[in-house]
Design brief:
By secondary structure, this protein is mostly beta strands. Helix content is 0%, strand content 50%. The protein is built from no helices and eleven strands. The strands form two sheets. Strands 2, 4, 5, 6, 9, 10 and 11 form a seven-stranded mixed beta sheet that branches. A four-stranded antiparallel beta sheet has the order 1-3-8-7, with no helix packed on it. A hairpin with a 7-residue loop joins strand 9 and strand 10.
């Protein structure tokens, strides 16, 4: 069973930066895809960015050009560098790992990101 632990959230002013980390309990090379999702109050959980073990990345919506997803194979960790943060980025950010396509994926507990104007 995969365990994901996020860290790095917090309160930041608009225009600032944060780096989120997600440490996995096993080798991230075994995952089909890892990604970051976010959920604002009263809204659905949406994909922000995803990365494959080979390093292919996908960014969605306003994350393009501001956020960067990356991994450390040695640390079994996936990161989300967030720059030029906006109040609308405020949400709980969740780490996700797809072990096998078609099977339930693993989720972290979430980390709160709050951007003040």
């Amino acid at each position: 069973q995969v365990t994901l632990v996020e860290s790095g959230g917090g309160l930041v002013q608009a225009g600032g930066s944060l780096r989120l980390s997600c440490a996995a309990s096993g080798s991230i090379l075994l995952f089909n895809t890892m990604g970051w999702y976010r959920q604002a109050p009263g809204k659905q959980r949406d994909l922000v960015a995803a990365i494959t073990p080979g390093g292919s990345t996908n960014y969605v919506g306003s994350a393009k050009g501001r956020f960067t997803i990356s991994t450390s194979i040695a640390k079994n960790t996936v990161y989300l560098q967030m720059n030029s943060l906006k109040p609308e980025d405020t949400a709980v950010y969740y780490c996700n790992a797809v072990v096998r396509v078609g099977e339930p994926s693993a989720w972290g507990q979430g980390t709160q990101v709050t951007v003040s104007s």
